[in-house]
Write a structure and sequence with these properties.
8 helices; seven-stranded parallel sheet
């Protein structure tokens, strides 16, 4: 009953060193998240497509293990989970952070723009989460999906990316209900304008990127671009054993942009 002093056991993950898998861990939010978990004492499997950025993520942090993998390739979700179990014997947190943006207005969306975004932003997190289910159930674990706050609004010229992230939020809520009886929590963060290389990866020129940043700052009530560490802290807090009664939530980390 509310107000009573009761003694309850903490979740299993609080009694042992946790193991965390972070996808898209080579740069930006993924790198900051991998480091944040490692700084808390967790063992982290940092997953990404390129070896050099992953090595930079792991620099000076012995608890981070880089794993080069393409999460969209056949068999890779199972290999990622198997690697975590072989190295550490358990899996407590899965952070589905990897994502790509391929801009285009309706009428210009060729299959080569559509397929990679759906494969990376939606199918891969689904298959990786599915592969991780037995391990997460054993540990009373957490799935953290990384969406975007702009996916909650119209995004002309970027509708497909926004749609994949909105779908990921729907999966978050559905999985939270579906997996609660198995002791697995599912949460998401929805970053706003964050200082990551995603603009460069889109092929934006420095001038276009500067103009985009100026527009983002003007439409962010807190008046600045966010840092990857801002999002990483939200992820580690949501995934913490202390948040054991939180599931199905999509937390904006956007300086107030989505409510402005």
């Amino acid at each position: 009953m509310t107000g009573m002093n009761t003694t309850t056991s903490m979740p299993t993950a609080s009694r042992a060193t946790r193991t965390v898998v972070v996808t898209g861990a080579g740069t930006g939010i993924g790198r900051a998240t991998a480091r944040a978990f490692a700084d808390e004492g967790a063992r982290v499997l940092a997953v990404g497509r390129r070896a050099e950025p992953l090595q930079e993520t792991a620099a000076d942090r012995e608890l981070i293990t880089p794993l080069v993998a393409d999460i969209t390739a056949e068999g890779e979700p199972a290999r990622i989970v198997a690697t975590a179990l072989e190295r550490h014997g358990r899996l407590d947190v899965l952070v589905n952070n990897a994502g790509i943006v391929r801009s285009g207005a309706l009428g210009t969306l060729a299959p080569e723009l559509i397929a990679p975004q759906i494969a990376t932003n939606l199918i891969a997190p689904t298959l990786l989460s599915q592969a991780a289910l037995p391990s997460l159930e054993a540990s009373g674990g957490v799935i953290v999906n990384v969406s975007t706050s702009v996916g909650q609004r119209g995004w002309p010229g970027n509708s497909l990316y926004a749609a994949t992230k909105a779908a990921l939020e729907t999966l978050t809520r559905s999985w939270a209900v579906e997996l609660a009886p198995r002791g697995i929590r599912v949460v998401a963060v929805a970053p706003g304008a964050i200082d990551t290389p995603i603009g460069e990866h889109q092929g934006l020129t420095p001038e276009r990127l500067a103009a985009l940043r100026a527009w983002q700052v003007a439409h962010t009530p807190l008046g600045r671009i966010g840092r990857p560490e801002d999002v990483a802290r939200a992820i580690t807090h949501l995934a913490a054993p202390a948040a054991s009664f939180v599931t199905g939530v999509v937390l904006p980390v956007d300086g107030g942009a989505v409510v402005a």
